[in-house]
Write a structure and sequence with these properties.
The chain is of the alpha+beta class. The protein has one domain (about 55-205): Beta Barrel (Lipocalin). About 20% of the residues lie in helices and about 40% in strands. It is built from three helices and 13 strands; from the N terminus they run ααββββββββββαβββ. The strands form two sheets. The protein has an eight-stranded antiparallel β-barrel. Strands 2-3 form a two-stranded antiparallel sheet. The radius of gyration is 17 Å and the shape is globular. The two termini are about 25 Å apart.
């Protein structure tokens, strides 16, 4: 079942997230503050769990710009973690993630590209992904790094930090891989919780 973003149960958090996406693009003046946006993301996550929503991998395909993210803090007394306050990505830096399908035999396999642009510098990491529909989990591993300066590639090599070779990636248990647990997938934005517990909110690249 896919998300029904018009239902009363989802109206409040969808309104906040839609407002944040529009403001991030400069289409509205004021952005929701970090606390309000974090609460909206948590409400979206709770709603997805209650409704047992699932989204196909194809709904994630495309290029998305990171708009907002939270860190996490370890709590020694409780032995767990809590969310950080969260922050909007500054205008002078652009962070994108894109997902592409690469296998005709398996529609849940593909490639991830994560790139950061800061002035004339571009850092791009790529690698394979596998998607678990029933859990909305997208596992990935970066195995290639590219760096360019003023549009000229100055570094393009395999990453030593890649956990597994591409051909072995799909046989690895999810517990050993980094992943995103997507709890909201809409036409204009997506949101997920990372393996470390932080939240991320992306808007579709236009």
């Amino acid at each position: 079942m896919t998300a029904d973003l018009t239902s009363k149960a989802t109206f409040d958090f969808v309104t906040v997230l839609s407002h944040a996406a529009a403001a991030f693009r400069g289409q509205r003046d004021a952005r929701p503050n970090a606390e309000i946006l974090v609460n909206a993301l948590l409400q979206a996550e709770k709603s997805a769990k209650q409704q047992r929503l699932t989204n196909p991998f194809e709904s994630l395909l495309g290029k998305w710009q990171l708009c907002f993210a939270t860190g996490t803090k370890k709590v020694r007394e409780r032995g767990g973690i809590i969310l950080g306050k969260g922050f909007y990505v500054p205008n002078f830096i652009k962070i994108h993630v894109s997902f592409n399908a690469t296998s005709e035999q398996d529609s849940n396999r593909g490639e991830i590209c994560n790139q950061v642009e800061l002035g004339p510098v571009l850092l791009k990491l790529t690698g394979p992904v596998q998607y678990l529909n029933k859990k909305n989990l997208l596992a990935f591993d970066f195995n290639q790094m590219l760096i360019s300066l003023f549009g000229r590639v100055v570094y393009n090599r395999p990453m030593r930090s890649g956990k597994v070779e591409t051909e072995d990636f799909y046989n690895q248990p999810i517990a050993k891989l980094p992943f995103f647990a997507f709890f909201l997938v809409a036409e204009d934005f997506i949101a997920a919780r990372g393996r470390g517990g932080g939240l991320a909110f992306w808007i579709r690249e236009t």
